[in-house]
Amino acid sequence: MILIVCLLGDGPVLAAEMPPDTMAARMQACASCHGAMGEGTKDDYFPRLAGKPAGYLYNQLIAFREGRRRYPPMNFLLEFQNDAYLHKMAEYFAEQRPPLPAPAIPTVSNDLLARGEQLATKGDPQRNIPACAGCHGPSFTGMEPAIPGLLGLRPSYISAQLGAWRYGTRTAALPDCMQLVAGYLTEDDVKALAAWLSSRKAPPDTSPLPRGSLPMPLACGSEPN
Amino acid sequence: MITRISGMILSAALISGLSVAVAAAQQPVTPPSAAPAPQPAKVPTDSIIARGEYLARAGDCIACHTAPEGQTFAGSRAMKTPFGTIFTSNITPDPTTGIGKWTADQFYTMMHTGRSIDGSLLYPAMPFASYTKVTRDDSDAIFAFLMSVPAVKQANRPHDLRFPYNNRSLIIGWRTLYFNEGEYKPDATKSAEWNRGAYLVEGLGHCGMCHTAINALGGSSESQAFEGGLIPMQNWYAPSLTSNKEAGLGDWSIKDITELLRDGISHRGAVYGPMADVVYNSLQYLSDDDVRAMAIYLKGLAQGSSPDRPSPPLPTAETSLLVSLGKPIYDKQCASCHGTEGAGMPPHYPLLAGNQSIQMSSAVNAIRMVLNGGFPPGTKGNPTPYGMPPFAHVLSDDEIAAVVTYIRTSWGNRGAPVSARQANELRSATLN
Lengths: 225, 432
What we know:
The complex is a heterodimer of chains A (225) and B (432). With 225 residues, chain A is mainly α. Helix content of chain A is 41%, strand content 0%. In chain B, 42% of the residues lie in helices and 4% in strands. Chain B is built from 18 helices and five strands. In chain B, the strands form two sheets. Chain B has a three-stranded antiparallel β-sheet. In chain B, α4 (104-113) crosses α6 and α16 (364-372) crosses α18. Classes of the chains: A mainly alpha (225), B mainly alpha (432).
């Protein structure tokens, strides 16, 4: 219906120039929000994709296509792409290793920052909150095949995602561990975590940990053991 | 997305029904008088089931009767309308929640007359006004295929329509005005291929659901068949298939039309938006012969009179300002793929110079492409499409208007300029 119709007869017919046969050229649709290599852009909200495990990225692409994760511009772009291509997209961005952006300068109080560190590294067992590091790794670089790294994300993105889990606009395969965890967090916890995580410096190796290297504190449908 | 299209046609239909139903409401809803004679039950062969599966693809049953991540054909897909939400039905062979107790006769009656097995009227969101053209043999094959898929026990969700739109007798009015029952009648003066194409386009393909304007009473007028129209609510413009100034295919080669329909891209253009849905879920599965037949029929359609171009909505001075603002934006944001002269790199980066759809009187699709970007559908012929980035977050309303005006008026293009207000209005268009 939306025929982008091209009348060859009307203009000069150029030699058949073709775009490069690469994923980078195909993924230009993603670049204006996520950066050419998925490194992220200056925009606060759009996340870095580069170097996250392919399984994680694939799960998100499927969730966007099916509308389980709601963000209309992404839902729209992926609506008519098949699983095999979504795999290719995930693998492409997982392989990229552009440098991490400079850590964010925290804008919260030192007390809140300390609370963020405590929750991220130790959790709060009395409130059933596991440490982020328990699944996302001590350096927060994630774990294969489907647990994302938490580095290089801006505080507004982190708090928006934790909020999305709490309000059900972002869901994952059952058991949806992040929905559970996010449900235990208060507004201040979210603010503290977003501030502390976004202020982490890059570790020497930003690659995700190998599969099964961490004993996960709770069952996650996205990361089958 | 077809579901939403159908939902809107339903909505429009209900409006039309409302005005007529006052007179028609007393008319009893009776089963069709010309019900086909019952036929003895036959055990379908594998080849009939396979043919039915193919025909179900041609009819795109799956797009509406399967919910996102739901079980195939189990229905319950939400179709949102301004009057409420309707939910598609379970068409798996489950005897209690699906169509397991139906007979081939009843299925044909439903397809042919738009009445369910209890005589109740179907909402015209179900394209029975097109499916009525389907032959008895083809209907039987589709039914045999549906009876062969896994039965799913999933009750139909009741429609959530507000009063008075929840009154099915309103449909009587719509039917009186817009429904012509009857199988496709071949035109003996045309080739077998043309007739096959016409049968698919007008029948199972139900192309007219979008490509014929929905008039003020919510029906599609036969005299305006395939002349195009804005798809209500979705804010995509379904171009005219009869006007060569829009998506009329009169001067396209059969090869280009075939590639567009089957692969989603061609050297003359690519499909996005609702048409990407149709290619993704239906047309890519059709045989080369059938797609070619549709192409021959569609090419032949493009002989009707073309609507006149509206006069430009903006004063000349404003237009030239927009064009001068648009060029630097185009050169910076668009030219790397589409070329400084709009030549593109077809089939992957569409040509813009001379592009019919960019010059159509409706600028909706051009504006939306710039705002939202998009990928052509992933198909067997084009499994890894090249995507266009969205610019909604990069360009202001003024900049969108400027660059779209530049594209619509440069390199010999003769489209009308667009205003920042038009661009702004489409920012809130439903995306999916």
